[in-house]
Amino acid sequence: xxxxxxPLLKRHALRIIVSMTILFYFVxxxxxxxxxxxxxxxxxxxxxxxxxxxxxxxxxxKIKDDPRIVIIDIDExxxxxxxxxxxxxxxxAKLLDQLFDSYKIDVLGMDVVFAEADDSSGLKRLNELAAxxxxxxxxxxxxxxxxxxxxxxxxxxxxxxQNHKVVLGHIFLNQRSEAxxxxxxxxxxPSVTTQAGQLPPPLFSPEEATKxxxxxxxxxxxxxxxxxxxxxxxTTSGHFNSEPDLDGVTRKVPxxxxxxxxxxxxLALAVTRLAxxxxxxxxxxxTTTTGNAIVKLLLADKIIPVDSKLSAWIPYRGPSHTFSYxxxxxxxxxxxxxxxxxxxxxxxxxTSAQGLVDLRTTPLERSFPGVEIHANIVSGILSGTFKxxxxxxxxxxxxxxxxxxIIMITLLPLFSPLIATFGTLLLSILVIILNMLFWNxxxxxxxxxxxxxxLFLFMFNMSYGYFVETRNKRHLSHLFGQYxxxxxxxxxxxxxxxxxxxxxxxxxxxxxxxSDVRGFTTISEGLEPKELSDxxxxxxxxxxxxxxxxxxxxxxxxxxxxxxxxxxxxxxxxHANKAVTAATQMLKSxxxxxxxxxxxxxxxxxxxxxxxxxxxxxxxxxSEFRMAYTVLGDAVNLGSRLEGIxxxxxxxxxxxETTKAAAPEYIYRELDRVRxxxxxxxxxxxxxxxxxxxxxxxxxxxxxxxxxALDHYRCQHWKEASSLFSALHQQHPARPLYKIYxxxxxxxxxHSPGDNWDGVYTFTTK
Length: 766
What we know:
alpha/beta; Alpha-Beta Plaits; 4 domains; nine-stranded mixed beta sheet; eight-stranded mixed beta sheet; 25 helices
């Protein structure tokens, strides 16, 4: 692990752990390891359904009607003219005769169940009379035998179905709203078992069904079907179980339903199969870890994608009454002006009447005729407009969640709130575009979990940044804000975890700066208090700004003096270089201020600056009444002494030999080796001239001559030294240093320092 990554992980450990927990939850949801009744899981599922509804409503086909399919509607008009439902079977027989014989329809699917015998003709009572009180009345018996075929409405209805493509409907019963048992032959639960009527032969027998993984299919525990007489007379029958989602909206229909180990087709599937002349439906399956999963049903060249429950998305073409509706009473009374509307058409018989309770909630409408759901499925099979799932949807969604989660967890802590918001918005847009591309490719791919993951990670990271990191920043600002610039506080906040920032005293190598205004007492005596205040403000403000610009920490202002240091609270290996640069810029800035001072009527200001580098104690120091974040130690005292002796050498800026060694980017002029007051060990002092690449050739030549003169001076070669210093003084009369050494040489020529002289000058004052 890289040296930069480890501090980052350490700093954001809590944030990363919580973010990974959020990601882990969504991965568990996507892989179906979480119970579906958890609150958040239920919310994600509900949101996914709503997203699907929006997709569906916004992409409905422009041409909605399908002329191949017609709905015969038991509507309010029919109920008013014919009577309340159910109608007698003689009426139903007449309706079938009109459809097949008069209007020449191709296939009839009936979204109704005929589970009970029709006794409305009175034939049952007449038979009881013939077997009882009137059995000795031959005329009654003869008349009854003649009328029996006309009064046996069920046989009339059954006879009308024979030799025609008629698909009846039936329904499977299941107490559970979700599939919860394997499709196999089982002992039925007596509390829910109902076996009314007769089922058609299954589409796939138990022996055929066992070849496939059917662990999640819908399983019936009972059924309500048609009377055996009708089932035998009709071509087949199909179930009309819709199995709505938890919100009550019908988005899918089981194309195959399991009962006692066998698979039974839906009404729409059976109708389409007859219309296409397909005897046996084909199956496309793929091998999974749990078995051979059915992924598609095949009707000749028509494909129906199904999920693990053998359900298919309903390919809604539009709102209710998108298909052609014809009133049942108009068929019975032959009032259809254009018979070709029904010729060779697929016809579905159902009801849109409010009182007959065959209205479903769909993504398009809250009251949608159930018969039209079958019409949409038939149309979808014929047109090939079914949406499908990716076979490896779980793996793809999991990979997407992991990729997005890891990207956000890694990058969000590094970004500002504005960039994080923009990036999150852009990522969300890209995910939505990807989902729309899937939709346009006829694939329904989950979106809710991914969007919620992005939202949750974004909200958590923004909240964490506000409540936790802002608190850290406030804490740092409270500790250091009065000493260092805000941008340094920001950087310290970013480096929490990499570095521990504390106000506890500690030893650290640092560089200290002391700056003082020359002759401040005289200046202050010549100005009014207001003028003096303005002068100091105009002087100290740019000086402070420069120190902050070069990452220095203001220790204190002492009237006209400034004390600052580098290397704390934020460690800085370049502390000496930045201190020298800052001091150089302070002198340059002061020179630029002088014209303004003169314009204000203020005297010219000169300053002295001393710098020293060494080990210092830094931290909060003071008393229980007042504390200050400051530096202490011999190295600090030496810095103060160096500032004090700048005027002794006629220079504005002196650094110690340790500062010179720590900032080699600069060229220095050695001034002297001295013992300052309070210290026994000598120290070399230097005047910075400028950055190496900025020093001119003439300055280099002067330095060479000066160093030669200084060597002769320290070797007590007084004549040679005097000659060299005299030449330098003549060439540079404005530099007091050469005159100082000439005066010392003159003194030592008269008062020899002795053979043991170390060349050090001792100061007896501060």
